[in-house]
Amino acid sequence: MVSHGDATHGKGSSTHHLSRGDASQLRSAAGHDGSEPMQQGQSNPMPSDPAQSGPVQPDSGQHDAATSADGACPLFADLAQQFPVDQPASDMIQILSPDGVRTDRDDLPVHVSDAQLVDAYEKLVMARRFDIEGTNLQRHGELGLWPPLIGQEATQVGAWLALGSADQVFPTYREQALATWMGVELSQVLATWRGTAHCPWDTVATHFSAYPVMIGSGTLHAVGYAMGIQRDKAADPSVDAAVLDFHGDGAMSEGDTNEAYVFAAAMKAPVVFCAVNNQWAISEPTSVQAPTSLYRRGLGFGIPSVQVDGNDVLAVAAVLSAALDHARSGRGPVMVETWTYRTGAHTTTDDPTRYRTAQTDEYWAGLDPIVRMQKYLRSRELIDDAWLAELDERAEQFGAQVRDAVHQPDPDPVALLDDVYADPTPDVRADQRELAEWLQGGQ
Ligand SMILES: Cc1ncc(C[n+]2csc(CCOP(=O)(O)OP(=O)(O)O)c2C)c(N)n1
Ligand SMILES: [Mg+2]
């Protein structure tokens, strides 16, 4: 958890972005037309006072006021050209460049000490190791399914650094690493994917809620929980908590998610939506679900919304930390889109080579969250070869722990109905008795 006392102070105000070359490489990989995105400072095309400013001229300078070159009414700008969904936004927040160069911002303090930076690197490595072991265990038939998190590690580590001790996480099914740092046992995560348990961890003690499998459904639970926090705070002003809700880019197309955003905005609920844009909803790219950058949708609900480089631990930590502070202080919800990439398959049932190009994979390999963090920490001399060699050993030991944790006794089938209600009804008890008798009779 972040200690708010050990802030690293801002060193400058410039924002480091992906170079134009990187962005156009991505665009060409995605098969787009090469038009330029909007420049910094143009992120909100609506003037604050339309009466004073006259009609909106989002692409002013290119066409006269009455018609555009193609005859389109200038009121209806082609937002897809200005804010293309398949490129990082021109105002995407980044602190650590892919080369490991750090550029702090005056408006965004990074509350991460040097010791936490080193720990964050270790967590990145362990998250990837957990993922590799999970994938292998599924291939060995020990797990029914595994949803890889590889490539998305920095978003989970950044979230871990930002969370306060009373905050509640509503995850997707991909936040495996964050789950374990919050106190969920390795064996509990693995049992879920082995199919031998339904959310076996204590969601109150760990502050880590159950995985939703219905896409988007968790957003409603998260907002409901946040509204509960509001009520707790009304009764006891010392309550200092918010909700961090994860959902994917694909989940943004679900009605549940949109309803959750409406409620969060209308109720000023203390919730931060972390929209993990890993570019894909199984085999559907974001471009078939939205024409413009996803974070801009949050603005339409009246929710302050930003895009952050999801492969940059420092930027994710700083933005989520500020967003959670905002939510905890009663100022309402925030949406944070983390721009990242699912390097692996959607799940172990998926073959991404059927729908993605090697060129896109290579582009994203150049933005790897672990590589950039290692470069940065080496440049600061916070880690060296000897430390990295020790970390390799710790990762080996951790891998063995994961493989051990998968071996658990099969659960009692009668326990299947234990958690249907907090207090089992007579019907549930009768079903359990019947099941127990049937099982005995079958032996
Ligand atoms: C309501 C619903 N519709 C469809 C599915 C099938 N499904 C499982 S994962 C998934 C894609 C979700 O994509 P995204 O929200 O981007 O999350 P990601 O898997 O990329 O982390 C879909 C469509 C589902 N589980 N629930
Ligand atoms: Mg996705």
SSE layout and pairings?
Blueprint: H1 20-30, H2 50-53, H3 79-82, H4 114-139, H5 153-162, E1 168-170, H6 176-181, H7 186-194, H8 217-235, E2 243-248, H9 255-267, E3 271-277, E4 280-281, E5 284-285, H10 295-300, E6 305-309, H11 313-328, E7 334-339, H12 358-365, H13 369-379, H14 385-405, H15 426-441
Parallel strand pairs: 1-2, 2-3, 3-7, 6-7
Antiparallel strand pairs: 4-5
The structure holds thiamine diphosphate and magnesium ion (MG).
Residues 248-250, 278, 280-281 line the site of magnesium ion.
Protein name: 2-oxoisovalerate dehydrogenase subunit alpha
Pfam family, one: E1_dh
Biased composition (Polar residues): 37-55
Key terms for this structure?
443 residues; alpha/beta; Rossmann fold; 2 domains; five-stranded parallel sheet; two-stranded antiparallel sheet; 41% helix; 7% strand; binds thiamine diphosphate; binds magnesium ion; EC 1.2.4.4; Alpha-ketoacid_DH_E1_comp; thiamine pyrophosphate
